[in-house]
Amino acid sequence: MAIKIRMRGKSKGGVAEIKALIKHPMESGARMNKATGKPYPAKYIDMVTVSVNGTPAVNAQWSGAVSANPYMAVKVKANAGDEVTVSMTDNTGDKGEEVIKLK
Amino acid sequence: MKRRSFLKGTLATGAAAVAVNAGLLTPSTVLAADWNKGAFSAKTTDDALSAVYGSSAATASGDIKLKAPAIAENGAVTPVEVDASGIDGVESISILASKNPMPMVCEYAFAAGAVGFVSTRIKMGETMNVIAIVNAGGKLLKAEQEVKVTIGGCGG
């Protein structure tokens, strides 16, 4: 299942702040299901990459301690018209990708 | 035969773990390709830092702007912002929560096209310190702030 990402970015003086809101349960694997007494299986995003015009700028590694439906903001050197891609995978192999053109 | 192959297996994984601990297999901080399992499964902040950077000695720095709430009403969504854009040559930023069962929360590695800035939301189980570690030119810098959590973030 594809991971849904909502993304925004605006360049100001050569630096663009990229904000992304991701729809994901971020289940750490430690939370107990009280009804069954077993933990909910782990499902969290572990790798996130932000690229500018195809060149990776930020590589993030996450654990299950990042909040559910994660928010992420990073700053990259980019100008209006540049293409910014945010792509990610979770520990079960689900992938998500979103591309925007900077204003 | 079974016992033999079992022993072989444990020896092999043991050796790999030792290599990771010794920092031999630690992926380079420049846009590492593999998820750093050693760091994220470490039980203490020192172990986690050693697994990422090969050292846990970080100097406190006033140049890191760490923004976190003094009181978090809901520990499951604690906003944390680390601004290290005033520091030259930032290679990576890590965020740790000191008393979480596994303190390492996330690590951001930066290439030349990025600025040392991260904003995110993390889970915190109880009142503890948020630690931001900035790796700039091989030097580890640290900023720390206590966050009081009134409702825990781990299933409570």
TrEMBL record, chain A:
Sulphur oxidation protein SoxZ domain mapped to chain residues: 7-98
InterPro entries in UniProt: Ig-like_fold (IPR013783), Ig_E-set (IPR014756), SoxZ (IPR030995), SoxZ_dom (IPR014880)
Signal sequence coordinates: none
Pfam family, one: SoxZ
NCBIfam families: SoxZ_true
Full protein name: Thiosulfate oxidation carrier complex protein SoxZ
Organism field: Thiomicrorhabdus marina
Automatic annotation (TrEMBL), chain B:
Residue stretches making up the Ig-like SoxY domain: 51-154
Gene3D superfamilies listed in its UniProt record: SoxY domain
UniProt organism field: Thiomicrorhabdus marina
Organism domain of life: Bacteria
Name listed for the protein in its UniProt record: Thiosulfate oxidation carrier protein SoxY
Statement: the UniProt record of this protein carries the keyword Signal: yes
Keyword Ribosomal protein (UniProt): no
Alphabetized UniProt keyword annotations: Signal
Signal sequence, renumbered to the chain: 1-32
